[in-house]
Specification:
Largest sheet: 5 strands, antiparallel
Radius of gyration: 16 Å
Strand order of the largest sheet: 1-2-5-4-3
Order of helices and strands: HEEEHEEHH
Structural class: alpha+beta
Distance between the termini: 22 Å
Length: 116
C-alpha cells in the first residue's frame, strides 16, 4: 500500500503556520491512522477564537488547502474525503483515503510505467 508522497504535508505546515499561542496554551496535534478501510490524517491546532463554530469551506480556505483538494480529486477520485472544521479556538483538518485506492497505487505512476 503506497500513498502519494507529501499529500498530508500542507495540513501539517498550516497547523504550524496558524497555531495561536497567545495565551500560552497553544497546541498542535497530528495523527495518522490506517485500518482495512481507510487511511486518515487528522491535524488540529489552536487558533484565534471567534463567535462561530462552523465547517470551513474550500472556497474561503487558502491556496494550500485548495491544492490538496485538487490533488486528491485527481489522484483518488471518489475515494477520499477532506473535512475542515473550526470550533471555538480549535481548527481541525482531516483527509481520509480508502485503503483500496492506495492498494491500486498512484494512477499517474501506473500511466507513466505503461508508457515506459
Amino acid at each position: 500500500m503506497a500513498i502519494t508522497p507529501l499529500i498530508f504535508l500542507t495540513l501539517v505546515e498550516n497547523a504550524f503556520k496558524h497555531v495561536d499561542n497567545s495565551d500560552g496554551n497553544g497546541f498542535i496535534s497530528i495523527s495518522i491512522n490506517a485500518d482495512d478501510k481507510w487511511v486518515a490524517c487528522h491535524v488540529e491546532n489552536s487558533c484565534a477564537p471567534d463567535d462561530q463554530d462552523r465547517p470551513v469551506s474550500m472556497t474561503n480556505s487558502g491556496v494550500g488547502l485548495s491544492n490538496i483538494e485538487r490533488q486528491l480529486r485527481l489522484i483518488y477520485p471518489a475515494t477520499h474525503t477532506m473535512s475542515l472544521q473550526k470550533s471555538g479556538n480549535v481548527f481541525s483538518a482531516e483527509i481520509r483515503i480508502l485503503s483500496d485506492a492506495l492498494r491500486q497505487g498512484n494512477p499517474f505512476e501506473r500511466q507513466s510505467s505503461a508508457l515506459s
